[in-house]
Amino acid sequence: MITLHNIRKSFTNGEETIVALNDVSLTIEENEFVAFMGSSGSGKSTLMNILGCLDTPESGQYLLNQNPVSSLSDEALSKIRNEHIGFIFQTFHLLPKLDAVGNVKLPLRYSDVSDEVATQRAEALLKKVGLEHRMHHRPFEMSGGQRQRVAIARALVNNPTMILADEPTGNLDSKTSDDIMALLTELHQQGQTIVMVTHEENIADYAQKVVTMKDGQIMSERVN
Fold first, then answer.
1. Number of structural domains, the chain?
2. What is the largest CA-CA distance in the chain?
3. For residue 189, is it within any domain?
4. DSSP, residue by residue, 7-22
5. Count of alpha carbons within 13 angstroms of residue 14, beta-carbon side
6. Distance CA 193, CA 162 (A)
7. Domain enclosing residue 95, as ranges
8. Residue 84's pLDDT is what?
9. At 48, is the secondary structure helix, strand, or coil?
10. What is the pTM (predicted TM-score) of this model?
11. What is the distance between the alpha carbons of residues 33 and 188, in angstroms, rounded to a whole number?
């Protein structure tokens, strides 16, 4: 599904050039569950942004389903993000004025799906993540774990090719973290491809494959 060839990305900070990714090559298969680990500055978040078509490498090649991403227009990249990738963030990124259903169906706003179908799909996904009794609650009326479940339902609403989860348990207590990871594991067992960034070893242990990064390079890969 994903092939990276010699991906390089750097940033300029004053007169200093910081290399965030240094010739990274990687393959992720369909229905894999991969976790990226590394300390702050290791390059894992930059890599996640490139995988999610939120950023582009300065050199190297990124193939998504055998299609070269780097040659696509901004409009085409936006289409890929909206139709093929589901995002889960550490801070949930829910809109405070919308209830759970409204937040989940938000990515469908720019699609040709009718509002009625979007609502039906959102409600079905909220039931799937165990929030059938919280559909019309707004984020401030829910716990952190419930808000993350809403975010997971939102990530699934477009039937994405893959889910990108950036520190999905970073703001949760250990019991809630285990519940969220059990849900992601269930989604993976149902055929979902999941790519996750985490700095927690016990969270990475849920993944099939753990990729450790340091100074913009892949240092090791292990299969759990």
1. 1
2. 54
3. yes
4. EEEEEEETTEEEEEEE
5. 1
6. 5
7. 32-56+74-223
8. 87
9. helix
10. 0.90
11. 7
